[in-house]
């Protein structure tokens, strides 16, 4: 028999999950907006400090909240009647969460490090480089995609589309 959560424990876990999602969404939105702002920097210091502010957001409002969202989401799925692979909406959220986290790990982190290092070394002239421009655009597009995923996951949470996953008969 599976472990089931008591009402207070479930409420606590849901609260932690919602707070983590809110932080993750806020951090993603902040990174996106600062990324847009960085493109319009007027000097090297403004460019660098905008990117440095993005680094603070990345470290505090993206990585850990995303991980907390994943962990609490899996715990809530496994320890409630929803299950991790019983309903399409849970699977959709799980796949989108894993996908956005992996995008951050394998792409955004390197792109952001490149932008920050280039701005630190070259100052305002960094913004004129083609590789800087391409990397910046990649971050903006990926940030937009991540925001879209987070918004979609919010709707999926409340709409619970597509019903239960039917078991295949052998």
Task: Reconstruct the topology from this structure.
Layout: H1 7-39, H2 44-61, H3 63-78, H4 88-122, H5 130-159
Features:
170 residues, mainly alpha, 5 helices, 0% strand, elongated
The computed structural class is: mainly alpha
The number of helices is 5
Main pleated-sheet profile = none
Overall form: elongated
SSE order, one letter for each helix or strand: HHHHH
Q: What does the radius of gyration come to?
A: 19 Å
Transmembrane segments: 12-38, 64-82, 94-116, 136-158
Keywords: Membrane, Transmembrane, Transmembrane helix
Protein name: DUF2269 domain-containing protein
Organism: Brevibacillus aydinogluensis
Can you tell me about this structure?
The chain is mainly α. It has one domain. It has five helices and no strands. The chain is elongated. It starts with 6 loop residues before the first helix and ends in an 11-residue tail after the last helix. The relative contact order is 0.15. The mean pLDDT is 93.
Kindly summarize this structure in a few lines:
With 170 residues, the chain is an all-alpha fold.
